[in-house]
Model the fold of this input.
Amino acid sequence: MIKHLWRIGLSIAVSMGILALLLQLLTSGLPEDQRPSVLAALQNTNLTLALSYLGLGLIALVVRARRYQLLLEMSGETSVPNLRQMALVTGIRNMIVDMFPSRLGELGYVGLLNRGYGVKIQHCVSSLSITIAFDFIAVLVVILLILLKQLAFGEVQGWALGALISAAVLSVIAILGLFVIAPWVNKYLQRLQPRNSESLLAKGLRLVDDLTDSLQTVRRAGRSGSVLGLSLLIRLLKYAGMYLLFIAVAKPSFTALADLPAEQIVGALIGGEIGASMPIPTFMSFGAYEAGSTLVFQLLGVADQATAFVTMLCVHIWSQVMDYLLGGLFLAIFVWVVRGRGSARNPGSEQDGWLAGLKLVLAGFVLLTSSGFLAYQLWAASKLGALAPPDAGQESQTATSERQQALNSLQGLRGFVLFSSNRDGNHDIFRLNLADFSLVKVTEHPHTETYPRVSPDGARMVFARAHQAWVSQRNTLAWDVVLLDFETGEEQVLAKGATAPNWINTNEVSYLLDGQKVVRHNVATGKTDLVLVPGRDNRLPASAKLQNPHVDPQSGEVSFTGRQNEIGSPHGHWGTALTSHSAIQPVLEGCELRWWQDGGGLYQVTKGGRDDGLRIVSVSTDTLEPTTLIDLAGEFSHEYWPIESSDGRYVVFGASRGKHAHEHDVADYEIFLWRRGSDPSTATRLTFHSGNDNWPSVYIEE
Done:
């Protein structure tokens, strides 16, 4: 058994590597603005319907295996595998068929049959070629059925007629190519036989002649009806399963697509299949499949092409995951049973011990590498943020008494604090009045809203609204920046694909656009200016991603958070930096770097707090040395999001229970208010709720 471990390990490594590549599609292969839609649709998929796809796929696999077996029998092959063996080969074929463009993965079927079960190559190729031709005919029949339905219940649609013509042309070309053109070409080629019967050309010509004989033997067998019937059954099972998978994805997330007539959805699935068959250099047909299907949806007049693309991408991902998991299992069984049996028959054919050991080491290395790649992709996926919003939580049992203590400590301070909270089940913006601790919901929208920032005069706020019901704050693209007038309640979208807004002065805001560009926006005139773009007049890499920029009202310099290796700091993962005469100056490892209103320096969140947590520090502009401002003792000691009031007297911030419970939009954060210059231990806790309260902003009345 040990001598076959390298083959088993290698097959497992291949499967793990493929799964890692599929995961990489979600972690880095998707545009950041599309990722929330895809993740949400995958998460909301109806698993019962998805498993129904898997069940129909298994039935189709057995039928497909029987068709291959029948064609091998018709070709005159003497070593025809049994149905169980053919099912193994078919399952592996289904896994690798889309690995290469133009469905070149089909050739794996030839290698598996020839090397695993001794089937002659000419019969492998002929059975494969004939199944492809009959697949075209089966698709033609399916489209014809769709057309007949349209004729019976309405008018014929142009896309269906075009698909019928295309399928008919392909079917005719395939049949003529196999049974008419191929014999004629073979007859011509055989005239080129060289004198040396062992030359490469001679062997190639003999293989072509054998293949032609195999094709003609199948044709003369007179069982085309059986092959066509099996082919049609395979198509019907496949499209029924894909239709169920489409509904499983679309129904919970994109109802309008799920309500389309079944024949239109099947038409899009056929379009995707045709797109995947095109000679386009893609891996697993990603991109080509979605393009083919969305083109059909476009011809059908579906207005929301982005939704159609996301739906088909999710359908593709689900189908690939299931096919590769099943195919990987079949591959392991194939290697264990088939290769093991072959070695048992030929014990003398085993390699020398040292070579077997080398293979085992090589397989172990590949397995370790693929495991590491998969582990890395799982880690990268975890860094995308939460896939779903947190529980709404509940108010603390002692909230009433603690709230009264907070009121007493503030002694009639007038003003309000804005913050984002999911305490009503969805992240909206809340306003807490400091005079009486009354809480008012300022926004009520089905999409996540966060980053509220009150204007210096207290009359307006800017905030970020997500493109979807839930978007992790780790995503910096799937947001719009919105301006809200408190008096009129009117909203104005200032920028799409933007987040992290901040007020520069009463009339200007800054925000992060496209995850990279820092924009200065005049809300009165609508004029915008780019104040920082990575790679433009600075040494940041052009691909650098920024977070939470802040424009100094006095100097116009920009502070921001970025990756340490991109901002020029030699240690840590994330760090802060600021611009100075077009130069990039690293500051500290941490985040949330801002200027004091009075221009007396900077403040930010950085490491070095209690229990190895975070703290809020003041930073000297001359030496960049930090001085601890706030490092709370007690339950909530992991500080985040400090922001000063416009009059400079108070700082509002959030704090969680520690570095292991600090995800910005998921963890239990509480909001605190601290009078600048006072003892940090006197900071007043403002919220008493186990939900997620984040990104506070404060306005203090004079």
